[in-house]
Amino acid sequence: MQVSVETTEGLGRRMKVQVPAERVDQEVERRLKDMSGRVKMDGFRPGKVPMKIVRKQYGAQVRNEVLSEVVQQTYSEALEQEALRPAGNPHIEPTCTEEGKDLAFEATFDLLPEIEVQGIDQIRVERPQVEITDADVDNVLERLRKQHADYEAVDRAAQEEDRVVIDFHGTIDGEAFSGNAAEDAPVVLGAGQLPEAFEHALRGAQAGQELTVEHAFPEQADSDLAGRTAVFQVTVKRVEAPQVPELDEAFAAQLGIQDGGVEALRQAVRQNMESERDQAVRQRLKRQVLDQLAELNDLELPGSLIDGEVQALQEQQGQAGELPEADRSAYEEAARRRVKLGLLVNELVRSQGIELDRERMMQQLREMAANSGQDPSEALQQLAQDRETMQSLEASVIEEQVVDWLLEQVQTEDKPMSFDELMNSDAQSSASA
């Protein structure tokens, strides 16, 4: 087997492989002989079909199968021979498949970069120290009460936290557009359900009032409405005031606390807040350590991996096909970060000998099954048989193990903060990420 490799651009490589014709021909002949002993054909006894007829009937099919297998085998052999580590699947183009001639093909692919992880000793992270107080629990209970409020019509101007029921119809340059109209739409003032222009117009409005509201769609909006101004005709049909339930045993029962009343509800809320706090602290630490790891390591990134991540991000957003350059650049920035971190994490797994924690993986799998809404044992079995789910879960667990290892190496400083400060800043960081 002859192999030659040339650099196309950066990490790109083109590998030409030539395989002796005998390798293909001998395998084709072996398979045809094997078939001749088993094939059934009218006019012949089983196993007595002449090779000439078997070859004429099945030769092309068998040869194509052998060619495909030999290409895959010799591609792997050539990589090993040349000590190459491809970053993903290759594009393979046969250049000669004629019978009696050497098989030849070209494989184009990107290499994985050579990586030496640097700067771990320079990473400094802040670990939030959050004590959940009685006042924090009170705030959550107050929000729960407002979320479970009933609304009653009132004969007054609308104010913050009221629910205003409206009809609206919007146009741009006199023309209707998708999503431009609704009837009996409930809007809770202050909840951010509609743009601020709407909420501002509705504050102080009364039932029966007709309003005209202008709204300019943001320039970065992901639609053909971006940067355009719509004019809405709005009719206020009702103004409703919230009737917040009392914090009592009945309210606790409404939230699923059947025994223990308000005190048991407070305990359940505190436990849930502690769980949310621990998750938020973990996410903040993880984000800090990975962000700094990425900043401290400048890598040449394989273009094929970036393209694959861009496509994955598109699919997550429900988009398909070719993107305009401006839209792709936004995806590409996130894709480059993901590719870089993936390469760095994989290198740390290799260099530090980090092995997958099977028990940790099974624990997460059990939690997924318990939260699926199905019978946990059946859900667990279904998840365990889903190859894509298991691969994704394995990657997630090994990444968490790498984060654990990094947090043991880096410098950590405790930072006191309130529960609301932690949760609000974590939500903002997640949104921007």
Can you tell me about this structure?
The mean pLDDT is 90. 49% of the residues lie in helices and 19% in strands. The chain has three domains: 2-110, Trigger factor ribosome-binding domain (Alpha-Beta Plaits, 2-Layer Sandwich); 150-243, Chitinase A, domain 3 (Roll); 266-432, Trigger factor, domain 2. The chain has helices spanning 21-36, 51-82, 134-147, 196-202, 249-254, 261-296, 303-316, 325-351, 358-370, 376-385, 387-409, 419-432, and strands at residues 2-7, 12-19, 91-96, 103-110, 124-129, 150-153, 163-171, 181-188, 210-216, 229-243, 411-416. Helix 6 (261-296) packs across helix 11 (387-409) and helix 9 (358-370) packs across helix 10. The chain has 433 residues and is of the alpha+beta class. The strands form three sheets. Strands 6, 7, 8, 9 and 10 form a five-stranded antiparallel β-sheet that branches. It has a four-stranded antiparallel β-sheet with strand order 1-2-4-3.
Count of helix runs: 12
Kindly state the percentage of residues in helix: 40-55%
Major beta sheet, specifics? 5 strands, antiparallel
CATH class of the largest domain: Mainly Alpha
The CATH level-2 architecture of the largest domain is identified as Orthogonal Bundle
Give the domain tally: 3
Could you please say which CATH topology of the largest domain applies here?
Answer: Trigger factor, domain 2
Low-pLDDT residue intervals, each spanning 5 or more residues? none
Number of strands: 11
Strand residues, percent = 15-25%
User: What is the fourth-level CATH superfamily of the largest domain?
Assistant: Trigger factor, C-terminal domain
Average pLDDT figure: 90
Return the structural class. Answer: alpha+beta
Distance between the termini: 48 Å
Q: Element order, helices and strands?
A: EEHHEEEHEEEHEEHHHHHHHEH
Radius of gyration: 32 Å
